[in-house]
């Protein structure tokens, strides 16, 4: 099979001219264009997707779009992506979306203009992903699964098992009045964790009790007040993530509750803050660094024309610290 360089030589033009004729990306002198098309026809040259991508002057940029860089889960994820990208000769361009579809689409357009080699995205918007159809780069979704669309792969944790582990741990620590701070149910990670909580409640015959909550520290402060008002006898709290766990701890201690003696708290994620904070937060750890590196490896492998795994699920792990206390 002739290469793009051999076609250029036979047609007496540059490889870039051949690429322009193939991709129609710029005007080419008609006489030259006819020469190139004649040689393509005679040699049976077929541009492969990889050559096409390379002739798009791939920028070696991997775009990353996350909802909230203030949440250490996402900044730690971005750090892992950047390190893996750098190790492989790529650069990372980090974009913050605040879960705003317009911002997500604006950043995707920018990455298209920059000829990004791939996009790693955390989004809960089907609409945004549907709009990816006409872009030229592979998309890997991280952390949040959406209905079947255009991503080439998803990398996430086993959030369902994480919900079960958190609930079981509070039961094993003697909690009899557990309340779950239910993360945003339009997001698969929160939905799966709550399903895990529900199934353990059924298994142990305990009442489901919950407060709708989000994933941010500020929302956690507000929802902690709502929780203690609605459930004054609570003795175990499953926070939607570590940032919320920290905000619940702050609210309850300001009200004079002793943690973990009176109320026990477990978070989710195992962000670095969860062990820097005093007391150190008991949590369900997601392998944030592994998730970031895997998503980056998928983009690079895909660009190199290798096969990739579409579904990538990592185990989670209980990290017992100071906001829970086993009895006995
Ligand atoms: O802390 C941010 C949350 O959003 C994490 O729990 C992560 O799983 C994502 O869903």
From TrEMBL:
<protein>
    <submittedName>
        <fullName>LacI family transcriptional regulator</fullName>
    </submittedName>
</protein>
<dbReference type="InterPro" id="IPR000843">
    <property type="entry name" value="HTH_LacI"/>
</dbReference>
<feature type="domain" description="HTH cro/C1-type">
    <location>
        <begin position="3"/>
        <end position="50"/>
    </location>
</feature>
<dbReference type="Pfam" id="PF00356">
    <property type="entry name" value="LacI"/>
</dbReference>
<dbReference type="InterPro" id="IPR010982">
    <property type="entry name" value="Lambda_DNA-bd_dom_sf"/>
</dbReference>
<keyword id="KW-0804">Transcription</keyword>
<dbReference type="Pfam" id="PF00532">
    <property type="entry name" value="Peripla_BP_1"/>
</dbReference>
<dbReference type="InterPro" id="IPR001761">
    <property type="entry name" value="Peripla_BP/Lac1_sug-bd_dom"/>
</dbReference>
<keyword id="KW-0238">DNA-binding</keyword>
<dbReference type="InterPro" id="IPR028082">
    <property type="entry name" value="Peripla_BP_I"/>
</dbReference>
<feature type="domain" description="HTH lacI-type">
    <location>
        <begin position="2"/>
        <end position="56"/>
    </location>
</feature>
<keyword id="KW-0805">Transcription regulation</keyword>
<keyword id="KW-0678">Repressor</keyword>
<dbReference type="InterPro" id="IPR001387">
    <property type="entry name" value="Cro/C1-type_HTH"/>
</dbReference>
């Amino acid at each position: 099979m002739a290469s793009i360089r051999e076609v250029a030589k036979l047609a007496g033009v540059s490889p870039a001219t051949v690429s322009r004729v193939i991709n129609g990306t710029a005007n080419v002198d008609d006489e030259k264009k006819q020469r190139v098309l004649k040689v393509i026809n005679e040699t049976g040259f077929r541009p492969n997707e990889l050559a096409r991508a390379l002739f798009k002057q791939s920028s070696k940029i991997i775009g990353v779009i996350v909802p909230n860089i203030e949440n250490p889960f996402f900044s730690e994820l971005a750090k892992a992506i950047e390190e893996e990208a750098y190790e492989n000769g790529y650069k990372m361009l980090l974009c913050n979306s605040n879960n705003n579809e317009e911002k997500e689409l604006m950043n995707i357009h920018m990455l298209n203009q920059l000829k990004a080699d791939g996009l790693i995205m955390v989004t809960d918007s089907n609409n945004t992903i549907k709009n990816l159809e006409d872009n030229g780069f592979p998309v890997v979704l991280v952390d949040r699964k959406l209905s079947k669309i255009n991503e080439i792969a998803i990398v996430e944790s086993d959030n369902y098992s994480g919900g079960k582990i958190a609930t079981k741990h509070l039961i094993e620590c003697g909690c009899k009045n557990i309340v779950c701070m239910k993360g945003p149910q339009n997001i698969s990670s929160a939905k799966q964790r709550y399903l895990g909580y529900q199934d353990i409640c059924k298994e142990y015959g305990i009442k489901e009790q919950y407060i709708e909550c989000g994933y941010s520290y500020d929302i956690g402060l507000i929802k902690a007040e709502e929780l203690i008002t609605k459930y004054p006898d609570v003795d175990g709290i499953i926070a939607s993530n570590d940032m919320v766990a920290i905000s619940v701890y702050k609210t309850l201690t300001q009200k004079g509750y002793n943690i973990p003696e009176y109320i026990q708290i477990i978070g989710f994620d195992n962000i670095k803050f969860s062990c820097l904070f005093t007391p150190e937060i008991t949590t369900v750890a997601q392998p944030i660094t592994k998730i970031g590196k895997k998503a980056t490896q998928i983009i690079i492998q895909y660009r190199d024309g290798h096969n990739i795994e579409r579904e990538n699920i990592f185990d989670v792990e209980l990290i017992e610290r100071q906001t829970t206390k086993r009895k006995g």
